[in-house]
Design brief:
The complex is a heterodimer of chains A (140) and B (287). Chain A is built from two helices and seven strands; from the N terminus they run βββββββαα. Chain A is of the alpha+beta class and 140 residues long. The longest helix of chain A has 29 residues. In chain B, α1 packs antiparallel against α7. In chain B, α4 links the parallel β2 and β3. Chain B contains seven helices and six strands; from the N terminus they run ααβαβαβαββαβα. Chain B is an alpha/beta fold and 287 residues long. Chain B has a five-stranded mixed sheet, sandwiched between helices. Classes of the chains: A alpha+beta (140), B alpha/beta (287). The interface between A and B is large, with 36 and 43 residues. β5 of chain A pairs parallel with β6 of chain B, so a sheet runs across the interface.
Chain lengths: 140, 287
């Protein structure tokens, strides 16, 4: 019998996946990682990309994450997924927006912030497309 | 017969109101179920993240993040979460009353206050007061997303890191059950040490990528965000529950008023008939 490990994928909004798996692949910040059962405890940030949960040789589920955290314990893998693209500039922009709303000032946002948002969105869209592409290939 | 025309129109208009409140009650009831599910769905995330932070704080006692350090309080930040719409009983006013009494307590000991509001009602209320409003977000709808509230949280976290505020609180309604909602004030920063106390059996540590500090920074921010987000969805569930109850009692009251008016109307009608008959009888007797 092959060894399995319990995998939880949760986002701030809801639980996305919970169950046993043979292996989990995730886009860690320092490169793609594949985690087998009884891996040493590890904690890492995730980049936007595809998390793949291999349940058996025939079955594996891909999930798209826009970043987040990966926590590994010998018998438990947890992925805390972000629900949206997060970058420092975007957070900053959101903060500025909330502030200007409070001041009720219709300040025009600087082009720099818009550029950063667009860039991050592009990356996000690209990763989503890649995941979809792979899904399609598998499907037929 | 002209008797009771006003009463009849009055009954009609109350019946119309009753139809509206009854419809709102049913809408709120179905929305409440959904928002309650959302509220429960957010719990695993913050629970998980809390566990990891506890572990990290224990494994790395030498690295103290500024979010964990207590300092003398001169100024506090408050995030107030309210609903966007009214007609939900005393939900928002109870929340604001609790907030104001807390603000008064702070003012007594010369602590200044920065306020961020979530939701139209809180914004409307606190922008009219002489408060220092530093950020607001509203019209999030029934299905708010975590990234909707990043802005206001970021303002507060930045202020905390730069030392402009020394404590951060979030105020929202807690969902006790359908009939009861309770306004609660929760301290977010500094992250209370007591929450982090936990018995860790057997010492072990993670492999960190890229490093422990980075991971802890990232996690603490997400932790705060998840608590505020949870407050938001909880407040949403409260709003729907409170609206359901308020609309139910409004429908019941309308029913009572209608039956009272109906009684008055019937009496007036009967009196008019009796009078007419006695007039006829008196007339016949005179002939």
């Amino acid at each position: 019998m092959t060894m399995t490990v319990h995998v939880d994928i949760v986002s701030a909004e809801k639980e996305i996946f919970s169950g046993l798996a043979e292996m989990v692949f995730a886009p860690a910040e320092l490169g793609e990682v594949g985690i087998s059962p009884r891996h040493a405890p590890l904690i890492s940030k995730l980049r936007p990309g595809e998390v793949r949960v291999k349940v058996s040789d025939k079955e594996s589920y891909p999930f798209y994450v826009s970043g987040g955290m990966l926590e590994v314990q010998p018998h438990l893998i947890t992925i805390l997924a972000d629900t949206a693209i997060r970058a420092k500039d975007i957070d900053e922009a959101a903060a500025l927006e909330a502030k200007s709303r409070a001041e009720e000032a219709l300040s025009d946002k600087s082009s720099k912030i818009d550029y950063a948002t667009a860039q991050a969105q592009l990356l996000d869209a690209m990763m989503q497309l890649r995941t979809l592409d792979r899904l399609r290939k598998r499907g037929g | 017969m002209a008797v009771g025309k006003e009463i009849r129109t009055k009954i009609g208009s109350i019946k119309n109101t009753q139809k509206i409140t009854r419809a709102m009650e049913m809408v709120a009831a179905s929305k409440m179920r959904k928002t309650k599910d959302r509220m429960l769905a957010t719990r695993p995330y913050s629970k998980k993240i809390g566990q990891i932070i506890k572990h990290l704080a224990h494994a790395n006692p030498e690295y103290k993040h500024s979010f964990l350090i207590e300092r003398p309080v001169k100024r506090v930040g408050v995030i107030i979460i309210s609903s966007d719409r009214g007609l939900c009983g005393g939900l928002n006013s109870n929340l604001f009353r609790k907030t104001l009494s807390q603000i008064m307590q702070w003012e007594k000991v010369n602590i200044e206050i920065d306020i961020c509001t979530v939701g139209t009602k809180a914004y409307g209320f606190f922008s009219n007061l002489k408060t220092n409003l530093v950020g607001q977000v509203s019209k999030l709808g029934d299905t708010p997303h975590p990234h909707d509230i990043i802005g206001v949280i970021k303002i507060m976290l930045d202020a905390y890191e730069q030392g402009r505020i020394d404590e951060l609180y979030v105020i929202n309604n807690e969902f006790v059950n359908t009939m009861t909602q309770k306004p609660v004030i929760e301290k977010l920063l500094p992250v209370a040490a007591s929450e982090l106390e936990e018995d860790l059996k057997g010492h072990w540590d993670y492999i960190y990528e890229p490093d422990a500090k980075d991971v802890l920074d990232h996690l603490l921010t997400r932790y705060i965000e998840s608590i505020v987000y949870q407050g938001l969805v909880e407040n949403n569930a409260c709003e729907q529950a409170a609206r359901m109850v308020a609309m139910k009692s409004a429908s019941d009251n309308a029913g009572n008023i209608i039956s009272e008016l109906q009684l008055v109307y019937n009496k007036a009608r009967q009196a008019a008939i009796t009078q007419e008959i006695s007039e006829i009888v008196a007339g016949a007797a005179a002939v």
